[in-house]
Design goal:
The structure is a single chain. It is built from ten helices and ten strands. By secondary structure, the protein is an alpha+beta fold. The protein has a single domain (2-120, 142-302), classed as Rossmann fold. The protein is globular and about 55 Å long. It holds the Pfam family Methyltransf_23. Its EC number is 2.1.1.-.
């Protein structure tokens, strides 16, 4: 996990503008949200590598459902499930020892899909007379805009260290929560959300149900419903819009965006089409929670 220690409007603005203009002019990435390249004529399917907002036919849905049902009939033995669950961090460490920074591409699309990460005007809060909630110095304590990028794991190490509440403007979790066991995801979201300021935003993007990746798993790789173990021992979960909404609202956050990103990726050389599904969401911590907290404190002090 990383905290951006010092951000200013003068530094952020030119960076944001350069990235935005570069990506907007690129043919590889249509404008946000979730792209704007629509396939209106099936005969044009091999003209581009990617099509956005793809509508699945009933046959597509049934084929995907049947494939998932098939690869879920034989699940990983319980003993092996427990072993891999206990050693999950070791498998991810091994993964990054092998691949280093070569496996995942830089997410240059972030400034388009999540502009909340690049504020054009950031107020300096250093001179504020409001009492600070932290009890000790921490990296970025004087920054006027703070971001927490969530990495793989369940927070056993970082949260005891990050013993400060209500300091973050943005939390970013991109293809992270899917690596956590489904029974722990709700608890992780609850714990992370506690560090958001009222008005702060939680940005989420991850695998969606019936994504091509899910359909490619074989029998015996399924751990539980929509949760699979890869050959290298790392795991992945596939979300639905409905359960994402439930997870974040149960954490006390308000939905500002919850989209199912359905795309058609095309291998024009092999004449193969592939359905991809991701969930992209934004949830905000309401100011009302802070008001309730203050009212509760006032009531407690008066009695």
């Amino acid at each position: 996990m990383k905290i951006l220690q010092r951000l200013s409007a003068s530094k952020l603005t030119p960076v944001f503008i350069r990235l935005f203009l570069r990506l907007k002019s690129s043919r590889e990435r249509p404008s946000a949200p979730l792209g704007s390249r629509l396939l209106t004529n099936p005969d044009d399917v091999f003209k581009h590598n990617t099509w956005d907002h793809v509508q699945w036919t009933e046959e597509d849905k049934e084929n995907a459902r049947r494939k998932v049902e098939e690869n879920s009939t034989v699940q990983l033995p319980l003993k092996e499930q427990d072993e891999f669950d206990k050693e999950a961090s070791l498998h991810w460490n091994s993964f990054y020892e092998v691949h280093q920074d070569r496996f995942f591409k830089d997410r240059n699309w972030l400034c388009l899909e999540f502009p909340e990460l690049f504020p054009l005007a950031v107020k300096d809060q250093t001179g504020s007379s409001q009492e600070s909630p932290q009890t000790f110095a921490f990296p970025g304590q004087h920054a006027s805009f703070r971001i927490l990028e969530v990495g793989c794991g369940v927070g056993n190490s970082v949260f005891p260290i990050l013993n400060i509440v209500l300091i973050l403007d943005v939390i970013l979790a991109v293809f992270v929560l899917s690596s956590i066991h489904p029974k722990r995801i709700e608890g992780v979201i609850n714990r992370i959300s506690a560090y958001l300021k009222p008005g702060g935003t939680f940005l989420f993007r991850d695998y969606g149900r019936y994504d091509l990746t899910q359909l490619r798993f074989k029998k015996g790789q399924c751990v539980s419903e929509s949760f699979y173990m890869r050959g290298d021992g790392t795991c992945v979960y596939f979300f639905t819009k409905e359960e994402v909404h439930q997870l974040f609202t149960k954490a006390g956050l308000e939905e500002t965006q919850n989209l199912e990103d359905r795309r058609l990726q095309v291998n024009r050389g092999r004449k193969v089409i592939m359905h991809r599904v991701w969930i992209q969401s934004k949830y905000r911590k309401p100011y009302l929670l802070l008001l309730h907290s203050h009212m509760g404190q006032i009531y407690s002090d008066s009695h």
